[in-house]
């Protein structure tokens, strides 16, 4: 019986560890995420996208049903006089099903061609028409949940950037703070390769044309057991082994 109690304690400890790790998102190398990049090359420079955009099997809009659109005003980096107006999605949370909504006409999404090998990128249009490029939110809904994603950030000038990853039921997996980043390729992977990332919202308060998104890759990796899972598996095997031995003795 003593052995059984110890095995049960180990089993419960393993379960607790698993639960504690279940909500983590780890930053990984962009290159480690396999998948076909969504390049937005079908969009033309300067295009204003008033409806939802479907590209590479992913839907893009401003926000999800349940998220409230608020407006945030923040000073431009390095300037005390100039301020920019941004989409703020920090109030409310997505409803179950992750239903995408488009922003108002001229304040939803747009395309900008950087004129280099990566060409056109997608930006969220902010609340002020005419001076809105990049200051808006971009939200994306995947065809099916994934365990890892990566993208290229453009126009990042060191301001505040937040990437929020959601499950299909609307619950937040994690908000990743990308503030202070500069242009580059970034990757994110769910702890234990759990394939439950159904979409994301990307918001920013980054001065000078906010930020743009390009080369989005999505991946469903084979689950990798974590130390907690190993402990759980070993404890489970020990319990089964202990029970089997006792039965044989009886
Ligand atoms: Ca591109
Ligand atoms: Ca917007
Ligand atoms: Ca910027």
Q: Descriptors for this entry?
A:
250 residues; alpha+beta; Jelly Rolls; seven-stranded antiparallel sheet; six-stranded antiparallel sheet; 2 helices; 17% helix; elongated; binds calcium ion; PEP-CTERM sorting domain-containing protein; signal; Ice-binding_C
Percentage of residues in helical conformation: 10-25%
Number of discrete helical segments: 2
Order of helices and strands: HEEEEEEEEEEEEEEEEEH
Number of domains: 1
Q: Which architecture would the CATH scheme give at its second level? A: Sandwich
Structural class: alpha+beta
Shape: elongated
Strand order of the largest sheet: 1-15-12-17-10-9-2
Q: What is the CATH topology assignment? A: Jelly Rolls
Instruction: Please tell me how large the radius of gyration is.
Output: 22 Å
Query: Distance N terminus to C terminus?
Result: 14 Å
Protein name: PEP-CTERM sorting domain-containing protein
Keywords: Signal
Domain Ice-binding protein C-terminal: 223-248
Pfam family, one: PEP-CTERM
